[in-house]
Automatic annotation (TrEMBL):
<comment type="similarity">
    <text>Belongs to the peptidase S8 family.</text>
</comment>
<keyword id="KW-0378">Hydrolase</keyword>
<dbReference type="Pfam" id="PF17766">
    <property type="entry name" value="fn3_6"/>
</dbReference>
<dbReference type="InterPro" id="IPR023828">
    <property type="entry name" value="Peptidase_S8_Ser-AS"/>
</dbReference>
<dbReference type="InterPro" id="IPR034197">
    <property type="entry name" value="Peptidases_S8_3"/>
</dbReference>
<dbReference type="InterPro" id="IPR037045">
    <property type="entry name" value="S8pro/Inhibitor_I9_sf"/>
</dbReference>
<feature type="domain" description="Inhibitor I9">
    <location>
        <begin position="38"/>
        <end position="84"/>
    </location>
</feature>
<dbReference type="GO" id="GO:0004252">
    <property type="term" value="F:serine-type endopeptidase activity"/>
</dbReference>
<feature type="domain" description="Peptidase S8/S53">
    <location>
        <begin position="105"/>
        <end position="545"/>
    </location>
</feature>
<feature type="active site" description="Charge relay system">
    <location>
        <position position="494"/>
    </location>
</feature>
<dbReference type="InterPro" id="IPR045051">
    <property type="entry name" value="SBT"/>
</dbReference>
<keyword id="KW-0732">Signal</keyword>
<dbReference type="InterPro" id="IPR000209">
    <property type="entry name" value="Peptidase_S8/S53_dom"/>
</dbReference>
<dbReference type="Pfam" id="PF05922">
    <property type="entry name" value="Inhibitor_I9"/>
</dbReference>
<feature type="active site" description="Charge relay system">
    <location>
        <position position="177"/>
    </location>
</feature>
<feature type="domain" description="Subtilisin-like protease fibronectin type-III">
    <location>
        <begin position="600"/>
        <end position="695"/>
    </location>
</feature>
<feature type="active site" description="Charge relay system">
    <location>
        <position position="113"/>
    </location>
</feature>
Amino acid sequence: MGNMASPLSWLLLITLSCTLLICCSATSEEDPKADNYRASEYLLHSYQRSFNGFVAKLTMEEKKKLSGIEGVVSVFPNGKKQLHTTRSWDFMGFPQKVKRTPTESDIIIGMLDTGIWPESASFSDEGFGPQPSKWKGTCQTSSNFTCNNKIIGARYYRTDGKLGPTDIKSPRDSLGHGTHTASTAAGSLVRGASLLGLASGAARGGVPSARIAVYKICWHDGCPDADILAAFDDAIADGVDIISLSVGGYDPYDYFEDSIAIGAFHSMKNGILTSNSAGNTGPDPATITNFSPWSLSVAASTIDRKFVTKVKLGNNKVYEGVSVNTFEMDDMYPIIYGGDAPNTTGGYDSSYSRYCSEDSLDKSLVDGKIVLCDWLTSGKAAIAAGAVGTVMQDGGYSDSAYIYTYRHPTWTQEMVANKPMAIIQKSVEVKDELAPFVVSFSSRGPNPITSDILKPDLTAPGVDILAAWTEASSVTGKEGDTRVVPYNIISGTSMSCPHASAAAAYIKSFHPTWSPAAIKSALMTTAARMSVKTNTDMEFAYGAGHIDPVKAVHPGLIYDAGEANYVNFLCGQGYSTKHLRLITGDKSTCSATMNGTVWDLNYPSFTISTKSGVTVTRIFTRTVTNVGSAVSTYKAILAVPSGLSVKVEPSVLSFKSLGQKKTFTMTVGAAVDKGVISGSLVWDDGIHQVRSPIVAFVSS
């Protein structure tokens, strides 16, 4: 350590230095120095089931020393990821009575999230048989948690052992997010579900007969990378079929520095598709945070139901705002503008109180009134000052509704004229005629690491989704909210991800031997086209289009890929053998024969990045596998806008048997002045239309 230090300073130094994730390509037998660290008292966790690595507390000096040991391919900090937080399935054309197979009950979806509320009616195992024989997992039972034949496994992870006051040391969900996503993917049918009367109807998951395996990785302060990798390690070995992960970072990370990308690669190697949320930091470009080519990246779009809240003034004029308000006022109340009620004794003036910021309002002026605020807040400050409700002006996007602890629609200037009275009404459902469109918060492409791979891959419902909720918390989880409910309405790519996970599980139930890439290809090439009028970011908002699970079961052709294809891609991107082994976990080596271009990765979309005013030509090589009619002929149909020239060779593919493969090349010339242009390639045999987007854009 250099200098003598007190135990407190030494422990503090360890805490501040970092908790590190160390991934090794060699075994401990081959690497005795690394093994010394495994035996260290600072070892927090060792990954041994599906890949090789461990977590330890180290100083920066120890980190540098360990990084230089033979066989250690990477050492990186244990950061934290964040959660990407009824009507939807029917809206997708995926009704309860859709054709299903008996093997759906053998499908296991691994939910990596905040845990689960096992008592929810959505997780009843009534009518379920014993767990599938392939299941190798466990249930970490406790005094407050047990599994059943629906929730067949449950684990929780907290490598550093630090829990908050609201955290529950078991797979039980104290936040609600994991319960919501699990029931969206695989919840049983529950009739009469609603959020205090809103969105009333039957709640169900996409594959209600499937089993759920719970891996609790997220707590009050986020989702540690060490725990994400530990959950991947276990889920792969336990025998899950699909991994659903509605979690991501705020910033993009290289594939070799991202626990989710690393875990997803290992799941792909073992035949398991990982479905990821794209992120909630849109609509700016290149904000997507889950974009590895071996996982499915899912954007969030609207359904044809939205919630609005109305304010009725004393003169009978009615104003409408966007929110989910479960409260009902019994009378009219005076309205006051926050800017007219500053807490001057506390040192605030109207420049603060207009925004209804904490402690900025004069209680004597706002008590018993509805407060109008110039900014979107939680409403907590106004209510703390005695207000009976808040009406807020939102300068941002209004294409999704939020739930508040208190009454909240949106206000206009006329509301403060002549000291009016008003009543805030309970929210109502209205039809959204523009649906589906990708919501503003959904993170956009292009892919920030590999610009010539289109991301997101597709979009699914993620706005105003009703699903099961924890009863260990309130509707919002905020102080003062006393509403404890079995079902809640929330929005996010966290909600769209389990829709895609369920669709993947549905395909898996029909095609149990299909690879992760085959399932992903089926979902992408059958996705419904989206309107560019309501989706101005085009493919960088919705990828291949809106998910269609029914069509995806019979795609006709698939673009398949496996570990070797992705290794070839990574080598071609210039990654070293050392970096490659961090992802693969084996002795893979980059060489002249393993050095493919990004345009040769057998991906179900085609993307070209270019510079403004520069014409570029790219040649894509693809191989398709026949999974439709044994004897069939597909013709290439191109839809190409000005600025793109496309040639497909051969333009006709004839198949004589199922499983037969055919290779084609597509030469694309692109001249883009600004923004994005796109077209499509469709392989059509008269029955199946296998559609892939062609995208060209000016990169920054």
